[in-house]
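Dissemination and training. As part of the outreach component of the grant, students in the summer workshop were shown how a complex can be specified as a set of sequence lines and then modelled as a single object. The example used during the hands-on session is reproduced here so that future cohorts can follow it. Participants entered these lines:
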Amino acid sequence: METEQLIRTLAADNAHRARPVGFVLALALVAAVPVSVSMFLAGLGVRSDVMTAMHNPFFNLKFVETLALAVSAIVVSLHLSRPEASMKGWGWLLLLPLAILAAGIASEMMMPQEVPMMTRLIGSNSRVCLTAIPLMSLPLLAGALIGLRHGAPSRPAVAGAIAGLLSAGLAATLYASHCTDDSPLFVVTWYTIATALVTAVGALVGSKVLRF
Amino acid sequence: MRETEDEWTSLMRLAISGDSAAYHRLLRAVTPVLRAGARRGLARAGQPVDQSEDIVQDILLAVHLKRHTWDTNAPFAPWLFAIARNKLIDALRRRGRRVFVNIDDFAETIPDESATETASPSEIAAQLQTLPPRQRDVLQSIAVESASIRDTAAKFAMSEGAVRVALHRALASLTAKLREQ
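and obtained this result:
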């Protein structure tokens, strides 16, 4: 086919309108959330002392951190879905959840504690944390990648990694309501490792499926 | 150069708002510039520059299918050149070359009008044969026989809406096949 013919054909298809990437991403995540929530309810469930836990600021802080991760990753992933976009000027958004976490650690340090630091860090749920967050992330990661395929990221692996952060943030939000380890030291250790795993998977799969 | 880019941006805004003639003009205007960039990239990779036309068509398809990712408040050229660079890298990789795409390959709006030395593109023609018959018929009618949507609809006893859907699907699956090859 000659280029002139192709151009005429593309012009004939100009009436076709694609949805914005944000809309498609939102739809895909809305479809994926019930799957992860079912996994959560079937395997873990909300911790039994949740009513008292809600009076503990460090319990509540976990949700601020995980949701901050999810939201900043959504914002960055939508930015990166444009081909001319780069991380320049946007990377700091991803440090936001870490900054909140650092503030949490600092304030916990300033409070008198009954349990020694290493015990708080190691906690009693690390293995569940490392399994549950990645597993519950998978449907969300699939949704995020399907949504972002609608975009045109110039660096698919980076965009896939951000999709991993996004899905880990959402899965960790679910997990946080189950886990009885509320210390920011536990969160910064185990949640971070779990998130890194999902991010690596996202980068790997993204480098294949997010090419356009 | 500035003027050219501003003109592209306003043509693309018109195109997005439904002006197909403006879209046609825009695609025709950018093609020689894309061709020049593709040739520069091929030359740098030590590849025959007459292979540029397949890359140009690849870029045009991506521009078409991803134009919703262009922010209508932003200038059009940086977006276009980002797509073009991406497709050039893909094309060179497919030819098994280590890729050094210079950011400048697609940074100038200097056109290359010398169509004479260009080998005719073959990738789309090859993939065309793998499309479902209905999509292929519609695409060929519009692309090769220059029929309008309405004439194509009458010829195949389809509704105009069905022709539009088949045309868009054909372009999308063509792009997917070119990417997977």
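Chain B has a mean pLDDT of 88. Students were then asked to discuss how this feature might be tested experimentally.
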